[in-house]
Design brief:
About 35% of the residues lie in helices and about 30% in strands. It contains 4 helices and 4 strands. Helix 2 packs across helix 3.
Length: about 180
């Protein structure tokens, strides 16, 4: 195992998330499916990110405004739906404890299409349920990939930019968060 870790090998689906984001609190607003929240938490824990529910978090990741859409994307000659497109989206925001927006309000979307067969409704309903699960998993991966480039240097740069934009001067005597 040491050899695998030393060569940079990483399991698929667990992109590196910087230790600079620890401890991290994940907040899921009302309406965000628990499946998505758990998938994000699971992927963060797979990446050895320390999660916390308490007030000692250095950063808070907020997931909100989940929207789910299902539209007919193709029709038959009888004007019945022949194909549907499923689309899930969620808003992501990452804020430090001193209220610096590390990732501003960002909308993430995943979509998938499937053929509909009105003679096989139950099978297509199961297919749609499976696709919804996959869409949640893809959204969770998008969230993790948004966190991946946030190294300590990048966070410091964002913090400096925020302070210069707001007109505040950095306090060099203040303890690091």
């Amino acid at each position: 195992m040491t050899t695998i870790a030393g060569c940079g090998f990483q399991l698929r689906g667990a992109p590196p998330v910087s230790a600079a984001l620890q401890p991290l609190k994940v907040e899921c607003a009302r309406g965000v499916p628990e499946l998505l929240c758990e998938s994000v938490r699971d992927q963060l824990e797979l990446g050895d990110v320390k999660l916390t529910e308490a007030g000692d978090a250095a950063y808070v990741m907020k997931l909100s405004d989940f929207q789910q859409d299902r539209r007919a994307s193709a029709i038959t000659v009888q004007a019945a739906a022949a194909e549907y497109t499923l689309r899930n989206s969620v808003s992501l925001e990452l804020i430090s404890t001193d209220q610096v927006p590390i990732i501003g309000d960002t909308r993430l979307t995943s979509s998938e299409s499937y053929r509909y067969d009105e003679t096989n409704v139950l099978a297509k309903q199961r297919e749609e349920e499976e696709l919804q699960t996959q869409l949640s998993s893809r959204l969770a991966q998008q969230i993790i990939f948004r966190l991946a480039p946030l190294t300590q240097a990048r966070i410091d740069s964002i913090r400096d930019q925020h302070q210069s934009d707001s007109g505040d001067q950095p306090d060099n005597d203040a303890p690091a968060p």
